[in-house]
Amino acid sequence: MYLNKINLFLVISICLIFFFLTYYDVKSSELKIIDGDTIHLNGEKIRFSGIDTPEIKQTCIKNNEVIKCGIQAKELLVKMIGNKKINCVREGKDQYKRTLAECFVNDISLSSYLVKSGYAFAYRKYSKKFIVDEDFARSNNLGLWSMKFDYPWDWRKKN
Question: What CA–CA distance (Å, rounded) separates 109 from 56?
């Protein structure tokens, strides 16, 4: 009987260890926002999956005025996060070894928020998840949709 309790304890312990080693939630404590779709969270570089935002140096045109739309996308993300905790759900790694994840603040998807606000695009090459949000932003002329812009993937090819 005593040996069965030890075996049971060992099995439960191994299961708990396995659970904690494979748990994919990342909660924030140390955060650095790199640009509109990339953050460093607790030393891990995280790229928001399924979206693409303008690069930091990227500009757009609105009313014949040059707008730093890459910086605007980052500032929108900074404002949305504020001092709130971020919860990211990992989805894998990209070709640059960055963690791909969807991140949330107060159960609101940051990716969905950025796309629906018009400062990110559904990255259809990799995901169809945010197309409805993009359609909303485009039809309401929000964010980048009110400007002349290059898609980030096209801008990167040129620059």
Answer: 21
- Give 101's contacts (C-beta < 8 A, 6+ positions apart): 26, 46, 47, 48, 49, 88, 89, 90, 91
Q: So what's the pLDDT on residue 5?
A: 61
Mean pLDDT, the chain, rounded, equals 88
pTM exceeds 0.70: yes
Angle at 56 between CA 62 and CA 24, to 5 degrees: 125
Cα dihedral sign, 101-106-109-113: negative
For 63-92, the pLDDT digits (tens) are 999 999 999 999 999 999 999 999 999 999
Domains of the chain in start order, with CATH, are 25-150 (2.40.50.90)
Task: Give the Cβ contact number of residue 85 at 10 Å.
Answer: 12
Q: Where are the alpha helices (DSSP H) in 82-147?
A: 110-116, 131-139
- Contact between residue 35 and residue 95 where contact means Cβ atoms under 8 Å apart: no
